[in-house]
Amino acid sequence: MDHKAYIAERLHVAGVETQEIYASLAVPPDTSLGDYALPCFKFAKVLHKSPALIAEELAQAFPTDGVVSSVSAVNGYLNFKMDRMHLFETFWAEFTAAEMESGYGSSDMGGGKTVCIDYSSVNIAKPFHIGHLSTTVLGGALYRIFNFLGYRAVGINHLGDYGTQFGKLISAYKRWGNREEVERGGIHAINDLYVRFNSEATEEMEAEAREYFRLIESGDREANELFNWFKSLTLSYVGKIYDRLHVTFDSYCGESFYIDKIPAVVEKLKEKGLLVESRGAQVVDLEKFGMAPFIVLRSDGASLYATRDLAAAFYRKETYGFDKCLYVVAYQQNLHFQQLFKVIELMGEPWAKDMVHVAYGMVSLEDGAMSTRKGKVVWLEDVLSRCVEKAKQILSEKNPDLGDKDGVAEKVGVGAVIFGALYNNKIKDTVFSYDKALNFDGETSVYVQYTCARAASVLEKLTDTPFWSGENVQPNEREFELVKALASFPDTVRAAAENYEPSMIARWCVDTAQIFNKFYIECRVVNAETEELRRFRKTLTETANRTLRRALGLLGIGVPEKM
Fold first, then answer.
1. What digits encode the pLDDT tens for the residues 116-130?
2. Looking at the 3D structure of the chain, how many domains does it have?
């Protein structure tokens, strides 16, 4: 039951739509005042009355019933307290019904509409570094969230597999490479060859690299066999990291896939009269929109990654018929996507409005290491492994008898890295700290995982106790807080999708875990005063455990049974 909607429909403010009232209702900072609050300040101009008087009149007119237990006016705010038993009964009915279907928190909000999500987009022959973390886990979380809400999400890994760097790689391999050594060393061996080429390159070697790239483009058998080998080694390497991060894709179409689709897009631009020549290049002039020209073809007729992005957008619309197309790419590419979307709009495509750049900030380590640009290369696989190793050490100290330490440490360590990248608002730059991420008492996934393990331990002792089945139990303050938190989960998931912001779910996890732990400390479950109360509290514990696990699962984080 949507209690905000219930309140909004029963409030009658002259000249104000129900939807506006609904949007204005919020949870007050001091929950002792009420469960929902309506600020009346914005109505003062319409009603020509003071906010305090408006709140008083609305409070007197509002009908209290078995849903809303009391209404009060305080300093221009209208506060509503919900009937505790009604809230729990409603929540429990919705929870049990949803669990029998597709799971509590899920919905058919998407109605089968398609959302394409472009994320991770690895470069062939280059290892993952810490800078790739955000796009990968943010995109992976959005993929799961949209599927959970009834959309058809299409995960796209737009591989960086086109350019002269691959000619350089072939040249380096033929000069210094050994197949057995490269097979053994994998992507790092390939990267070492590429780095060596760039450090020793002469004009003759650069020319040779350009020729090898031309051979790739022209379909030369040997050049393409080598290129495809490098590609398979890369995908094998990143596949293992994706498995650890619980990230999946439906398409690995890279830049090279769109080369033969570029001429059709260029022809459309010509038909619309959008292409102009600038210093020999073909561009779309965007000056009147305050943007630099969008370069479509270089002076030598070659395409750029921007051109390939344009071709990819048209291909995705034609292939998937998307309702939204998301690009999970760092904020440094803001201008590129503004240009790309504007060009599609100028081409007369109504779906230009459905293109969304989901920008995010960068992740760095405490010593400032982030990417290859400053020469401080930190591979993502090393960050994951180090976090898992530290998690194992901490778990061994806290629980020496813990079984399957390796499996538990993997979930805890990898989960800490994912959560660290998702907890803050996506646009913020983040500094990752191993110690903070693995803090059992902080705002971390470890804290939430430990809460779930604690709940599971309680439930293990109550296997013979039935769940609550409608007995008359009056929830106390702690129980009521937990019910409210759990009841807010579906709205939180929807808001995360609407704002492309998985951090909302991450913060909900921490807040709800904190509320559960207060309940756990203050409310006896196993040794409850009565059988009815024991059933009721077992039910609360079960729903908290299951919902927290589901929330972490949407973020890509597994939960051990014991810690």
1. 999 999 988 888 888
2. 3
